[in-house]
From TrEMBL:
Family (UniProt): Belongs to the TonB-dependent receptor family.
Principal location listed in the UniProt entry: membrane
Protein name: TonB-dependent receptor
Residue ranges annotated for the TonB-dependent receptor-like beta-barrel domain, each copy included: 425-957
Keyword Membrane assigned: yes
């Protein structure tokens, strides 16, 4: 009867070596006791059995029917990766996903996601040592629950196994696109410390620093126990706008000619210097806007509407460039041998994340002349809340406008004024997250069968702090009480408000901190799991042993976001107190068997039954076949069915009460752009400036949005298949190729608010003062021969106001089909006295990506491969040369070119002829689409001694800069970066 003993090094099959060459020096978790010589073969066989991701059965050959990619700790070091997200960037099957540094105002600030096959974070299952993790406390967009891969203990990682095949039959929900299983060191003895620092040659403020210490004691073979702990510290510096604003791709500045000009470096008042502001009014006859600088202004510029007092835009904003992030992760692993045939084990993980971003320029008091801010709130019903910055009344002590201006609107004037009192570092956002997982279990043998059971408790508590929005009560204390002009409906501030314009003081600062308070949004997730399984020989066939596994899972899941009480009551502008409250218990039974039908043919069958509340039990099957066609050639294929259960955010109680950004209203977009483009042809500077500011301003607005959960949602279903081979013509070369296919239907989706049929209710604002002023400016230009513009007989105009609010609900709708090929080639060359050379090429070649978010037949959007964000080819090339005390690695990442349009329908407007993407001009020479992108990393490690290793890596070795991408809010694609060539230094010391 096998017993647990110290890990040993294994000799495995040549095909296994092809897949796991880098693991040759790593200990395998299976353990055995010394045995008598006559039981040697039995012990060796038992030792050789390992469990791989995607199967519950231990086997002697890690080459299964399912494709599996293995990334070792050494591979991660060679990549120069500092986070798991950076590791995934080097895997062609992974697609860009949320990055914590770019996650501000997404609802899940401070977290990163995994995304295989482009099917989203909810289609990719992330495991730690084969077991589930709790979702991140704050779901993306307040709706998408996912595992935050930044919370996984990086310093303790031994390897990552990436299963690029469906695995719902083994793991249940979410494993549609594949599984990422992060595996920590099974044991560790001694003490090891390491540190690294990264810096950019282009962005001076960029920096990443990481330090870790790992220590352990006890030997399983001698002491019958091993305990080790690892602590990992990570810090990324914030990147202020001052180090970023002039380093965007060149085309951005062509499309936004006033961008740098609007910082007012040469014309505006300096930070901290009092700026008295500007007044304005509207001509009651023409609607034209007239403005003038307030008395005492020393920074006046002339515009078409008149002189204006301007200030410099402060450049300490860290929202665009990147937030500061601090992470600390502690991990403890313990194993204790009990008797001769059982073992107790335990794990504990704790991660704390603190992400901060300075909001930059202090808020400005700018009387609202266009659309007000609008938002839904939980307790205020279906009528959107609105907020206007008010006007100054005729008797206001700070209304020092000229008598001529006052006469225009009965003494009422608008005001533009910089509220500097709260300080330049007061506004911004912070997110904290504390996550944990504790696990305890036992494993052992009963005869020839092994068993294992464990209980785990995991959770996350996320808090988002925002200091950016107005608190209506606090604003009223500073500037109220308010009155309403009965003739025009304009809101007027108090004639002698508590806030004193024209001075910077601590009394003013206290009022502003109440008017713009820091409010919090907290959320909690919890996951308790109990699992158990047995595994062993079931029967004996002529070709060998049939092995089987049987088990169960019991999960208790909860998600709670109470929301902010002020926001829930509509007191916080643009924040509606989104809330969720849900709990559920789920049950699962599973079985799996591996049978050698012949000496060459092996069949793997798995079945899992999951029961979720409110819908029928889901049965997920999987069938895998492996055929040894030749000694050098293995054929393999799988078919499985997957599912994703509705998350508690999608089907529970609550909803999203806030806003949606980037809402596109074609009517207003086209009308505003027609006005803007005509103004831009003028020879009068003021007209051109106005046209530039109006262009595309109504094409992506922020509107009030309410998205309601749907308790009647059903699970998404999927059919998944793979078919391929592994070919090893020589011991130094292996090649694998697999076709993969995923068809997902009944997809759970939030409303597509661009489609009227998905909107339950919609409202619009009326035509505003600003709209009428734009039309007046256009009429004045056309009436002036000096403008040089031949205006049409009928001028562009506005027929409707902007959309103010939309309401929708989650639904089961639509389907997606994706397929393609994964190709991997690896060679291992012994160079004799010149060391060893490993060369690898991996590529994902996409064939189809088709989707239809409607309920109709067919594929409404056609095949999206080759369109934006769906390149046909993603590939990596790497080579490692090990020579004496030096390891040299060279990595190339490649992403193929695409069209600018998202699909065939979008291509009707954004194509090579229009030379646009998202209706914006792209760089000349790139009209036919986003160009291919590649970067190269070069790393060298010097093993100075058995204890000390020093490494240097040059990332983006050839200093390639990103191209302009109007589809991405960063102005360059997410798979590129703006850091130019960067460098990292790594030190590792083993005591």
């Amino acid at each position: 009867m096998p017993a647990f003993r110290a890990p040993r090094h294994l000799a495995i099959s040549s095909l296994s070596i092809a897949l796991l060459a880098a693991l040759a020096s790593a200990p395998i978790a299976a353990q055995d006791a010394p045995a008598k010589q006559d039981k040697k073969d039995e012990k060796v066989t038992e030792l050789a059995r390992v469990q791989v991701t995607g199967s519950n059965i231990k086997r002697t050959d890690t080459e299964t029917a399912s494709p599996l990619q293995v990334v070792t700790a050494k591979d991660i070091e060679s990549m120069g990766a500092r986070t798991l997200l950076q590791v995934l960037d080097n895997l062609p099957a992974a697609r860009p996903a949320q990055v914590d540094s770019k996650s501000l105002y997404t609802g899940s600030d401070g977290a990163s996601q995994a995304n295989l096959r482009g099917l989203g974070a909810q289609g990719t299952l992330v495991l730690l040592n084969g077991r589930r993790l709790s979702y991140y406390g704050a779901p993306a967009g307040f709706q998408t629950q996912f595992v935050n891969i930044d919370a996984i203990p990086a310093a303790a990682i031994e390897r990552m196994e990436v299963l690029t095949d469906g695995a719902s039959a083994v793991y249940g929900t979410d494993a549609v696109a594949g599984v990422i299983n992060v595996i920590t060191k099974p044991s560790f003895k001694g003490l090891e410390v390491s540190g690294s620092t990264d810096m950019s040659s282009r962005i001076r403020s960029y920096g990443e620093r990481q330090a870790s210490i790992t220590g352990g004691f006890g030997d399983l073979g001698e002491d019958r126990y091993n305990v080790y702990a690892s602590v990992n510290l990570y810090k990324r510096d914030a990147i202020p706008l001052s180090d970023w604003y002039d380093k965007k791709p060149a085309q951005f500045y062509i499309n936004n000619p006033s961008y740098i000009k609007n910082f007012r470096f040469d014309t505006g008042s300096a930070p901290g210097v009092l700026n008295p502001g500007s007044y304005f009014a509207f001509d009651p006859v023409t609607g034209k806007k007239v403005q003038q600088a307030a008395p005492g202004c020393n920074n006046i510029i002339a515009e078409a509407a008149g002189p204006r007092c301007v200030w410099q835009t402060w450049l300490n904003n860290e929202i665009d460039g990147g937030a500061e992030s601090k992470r600390a992760t502690a991990y403890i692993n313990a194993h204790f041998l009990l008797g001769e045939s059982s073992e107790a084990f335990a794990e504990a993980t704790y991660t704390t994340i603190d992400l901060r971003a300075n909001g930059g320029t202090p808020r400005a008091f700018g009387t609202t002349t266009g659309n007000p801010s609008s938002w839904f709130a939980r307790n205020t019903g279906y009528v959107a809340n609105q907020f206007f910055y008010p006007y100054l009344g005729p008797n206001n002590v700070y209304n020092k406008a000229s008598p001529e201006m006052k006469a225009m609107m009965g003494g009422v004037v608008g005001l533009q004024y910089l509220l500097q009192d709260a300080g330049d570092h007061y506004f911004g956002q912070r997110n904290t997250d504390k996550s944990y997982r504790v696990l305890a279990g036992m494993r052992g043998y009963l005869g020839d069968w092994s068993w294992e059971t464990a209980f785990a408790s995991a959770g996350s508590h996320s808090t988002t702090y925002q200091t950016i929005n107005v608190n209506l009560d606090g604003f009223a204390k500073a500037f109220g009480p308010f009155t309403v002009d009965p003739g025009t409906g304009r809101v007027i501030i108090a004639d002698n408000p508590a806030y004193k314009f024209g001075e910077i003081s601590e009394a003013n600062a206290a009022l502003l901190r109440a008017a713009y308070p820091t409010f919090d949004i907290q959320s909690w997730t919890r996951l308790h799991t109990l699992d158990g399984k047995i595994e062993g020989p079931l029967a004996t066939l002529p070709a060998g042993e049939v092995r089987a596994a049987f088990g169960f899972n019991l999960n208790r899941e909860s998600f709670f976001t109470p929301g902010n009480s002020d926001a829930a009551n509509g007191k916080i502008t643009q924040q509606g107190g989104s809330w969720f409250d849900g709990k559920r218990t789920t049950y699962a039974l599973f079985a799996e068997a591996v049978a050698p039908i012949t000496a060459k043919l092996e069949v793997d069958a798995a079945l899992r039954l999951d029961k979720y509340p409110h819908f029928s039990a889901n049965l997920a099957p999987k069938l895998g076949v492996k055929y040894q066609a030749l000694p050098e050639l293995v054929l393999r294929g799988t078919y499985s069915e997957g599912f994703r259960a509705p998350s508690l955010a999608e089907a529970g109680s609550g909803g999203i009460f806030a806003q949606i950004g980037g809402y596109r209203d074609e009517t207003r977009c086209n009308q505003t752009n027609a006005i803007a483009n005509l103004l831009r042809t003028s020879q009068r500077a003021g007209d051109v400036d106005l046209g530039n500011s109006l262009l595309n301003s109504d094409c992506g607005r922020t509107v009030a949005r309410m998205t309601q959960p749907n308790p009647d949602l059903q699970p998404e279903k999927a059919k998944i298949a793979t078919l391929g081979f592994v070919f090893e013509p020589a011991k130094w070369l292996s090649v694998s190729a697999d076709w993969w296919f995923v068809y997902r239907r009944n997809e759970i989706a939030a409303p597509d608010y661009s489609k009227p049929e998905e909107i339950i209710a919609q409202t619009r604002f009326p035509i505003t003062d600003a709209d009428r002023a734009n039309l007046a400016a256009l009429a004045a230009m056309c009436a002036d021969p000096g403008s040089g513009v031949a205006c049409p007989a009928v001028l562009p105009t506005y027929t409707v106001g902007n959309v103010s609010s939309v309401i929708g609900q989650y639904k089961n709708k639509g389907r997606t089909l994706v397929d393609g090929f994964d190709v991997d080639a690896r060679s291992r060359l012994d160079l004799g006295e010149w060391g060893r050379l490993n060369i690898g090429v991996a590529a994902t070649i996409a064939r189809r990506s088709m989707y239809n978010f409607d309920d109709g037949d067919g594929w409404a959007y056609g095949n999206a491969i080759g369109y934006y964000n769906n390149p046909r080819v993603r590939a990596t090339f790497n080579t490692d040369w090990n020579y004496k005390q030096f390891d040299t690695s060279f990595y190339i990442n490649f992403v193929g070119k695409t069209k600018w349009a998202y699909d065939q329908i979008d291509a009707q407007d954004n194509n090579a002829q229009s030379c646009t993407a998202s209706y914006e001009a792209v760089a000349p020479g790139q009209c036919d689409g986003a160009p291919s992108w590649w970067t190269a990393n070069l790393g060298v490690s010097w093993h100075a001694s058995e204890k000390l290793t020093v490494g240097v890596t040059a990332k983006n070795l050839f200093n390639r800069l990103p191209f302009f991408d109007p589809n991405d809010w960063m102005t360059f694609s997410g798979y590129t970066n703006n850091f130019g060539r960067s460098y990292s230094l790594m030190l590792n010391y083993k005591f």
